[in-house]
Amino acid sequence: MPYPNSQKYFEEAGKFIPGGVNSPARAFKGVGGTPLFMKKAEGAFMYDEDGNELIDYIGSWGPMILGHAFPAVVEAVRNAALGSTSFGTPTVIENRMAELVCSLVPGLDKIRMTNSGTEATMSTIRVARGYTGRDKVIKFEGCYHGHGDAFLIKAGSGALTLGQPSSPGVTAGTAKDTLTADYNSIDSVRKLLEENRDEVAAIILEPVAGNMGCVPPKKGFLEGLRKLCDEHGVLLIFDEVMCGFRVAPGGATERYGVQPDLMAFGKVIGAGMPVGAFGGSDEVMSVVSPNGPVYQAGTLSGNPVAMSAGLALLGELKKNPHIYDDLEAQSAKLENGMLEVFEKHGITVANNRVGSMLGFFFCEGPVESFADVSRTDTKFFSRFFHSMLAEGVYLPPSAFEAWFVSHKHDDAVIQRTIDAADKALASMNKT
Ligand code: PMP
């Protein structure tokens, strides 16, 4: 599959944009080669600047639950833009959005919109610090919470792919307040809490980790964290930026039945428009400005175009809960088909799946932590990635990212993917 136009545009991009991309995870650094420049997308397919058709398993890194260019979303965006792209005043659509999200997510009394997932997670930490009067935060190795300073310590996603999980530019003072535990290890959290008694404001995690591949919480892990938080007066924060509205209408909070004190959302909540949000109980959120002393703001927060897009998507998900059964069924077909093909070609693979989030790791299983994830054969993944691309399947360009299935990944799309994997692995065996 040739892509000369993408190569030309990438070269051009490098002249004006650092590394040619506006977000590192797009750069193909983990797999090598040139990122494709997309022109449009519809349903389960993306079309690049060379006219190649690609089955999409990134889904804009999560939000395209109903597929690209979902008609109700497109219509909502068009109508909203006709009424102005921004007012900088309250609007009724913000009320409707807040009401809808609070109705979907258990224990969410109040929600504040932001413009990205990063802003949302940063705000949860500030709220937790303001609420508890403590400074330290516990996060988990391999989880990614955006590029806020406090989170760029042993981070996942692009930071991990680039081999820079801890970034220069983060001050020693900030780094010292971020403590890192092992995902799925309650003991590692207990130890940190005991060593830092009365100093920890919050524990933040991806309740389904999607930034080191897909790694679900082990039975009892979330419950154990809840209990430890209660014992130590620490707030529990679920970063639902990826899994919110995806693993269930009410996200991981609903799926696992464990109640966090604060939640961060992003991506999905704006149907692909630049949106994030954070929220929690009335009591915790009462510290947020202008009612409380913890400052948080945004000129474009609650933007009418973004809110309209999000409302259209979430409204659809609420109206049609069968979507989640369909996603489960299609994703299981993909999972089983891929496992069969890997087995046929004698490939060692471990995998995890939560609903429509999937992770394949080229190593022995089980994969339950960052240490396990690190065993995956990244060189093999890179070859597999490029062979799949040649067959018209666009996987996330990193061994450490989850694959996302949309409602438009029907039987034909899934079968095409499985056949492509069969061909890709056959061609790899020859080289
Ligand atoms: N948290 C999680 C779990 C994420 O996956 C991401 C983005 N990949 C973020 C936070 C940051 O969101 P954004 O890129 O919108 O700032």
Automatic annotation (TrEMBL):
- Gene3D superfamilies this protein is in? Aspartate Aminotransferase, domain 1, Type I PLP-dependent aspartate aminotransferase-like (Major domain)
- Keyword 4Fe-4S listed? The answer is no
Q: State the encoding gene.
A: hemL
> Any one cellular component term from GO for this entry?
cytoplasm
Q: Which UniProt keywords apply?
A: Cytoplasm, Isomerase, Porphyrin biosynthesis, Pyridoxal phosphate
Catalytic activity reads: (S)-4-amino-5-oxopentanoate = 5-aminolevulinate
* Quaternary structure annotation from Swiss-Prot or TrEMBL: Homodimer.
Q: Which GO terms describe its biological process?
A: protoporphyrinogen IX biosynthetic process
Q: What is this protein called?
A: Glutamate-1-semialdehyde 2,1-aminomutase
Specify the taxonomic lineage. Answer: Bacteria, Pseudomonadati, Balneolota, Balneolia, Balneolales
Q: Where does the protein end up?
A: Cytoplasm
Annotated metabolic or biological route of this protein: Porphyrin-containing compound metabolism; protoporphyrin-IX biosynthesis; 5-aminolevulinate from L-glutamyl-tRNA(Glu): step 2/2
NCBIfam families recorded: hemL, PRK00062.1
Query: What Pfam families does this protein map onto?
Result: Aminotran_3 (PF00202)
Q: Which SUPFAM superfamilies match?
A: PLP-dependent transferases (SSF53383)
Entry's family note = Belongs to the class-III pyridoxal-phosphate-dependent aminotransferase family. HemL subfamily.
Positions modified as N6-(pyridoxal phosphate)lysine? K267
Record EC number: 5.4.3.8
What cofactor(s) does the depicted protein rely on?
pyridoxal 5'-phosphate
List the molecular function annotations (GO) for this entry: glutamate-1-semialdehyde 2,1-aminomutase activity; pyridoxal phosphate binding; transaminase activity
The reply to whether tRNA processing figures as a keyword in the UniProt entry is no
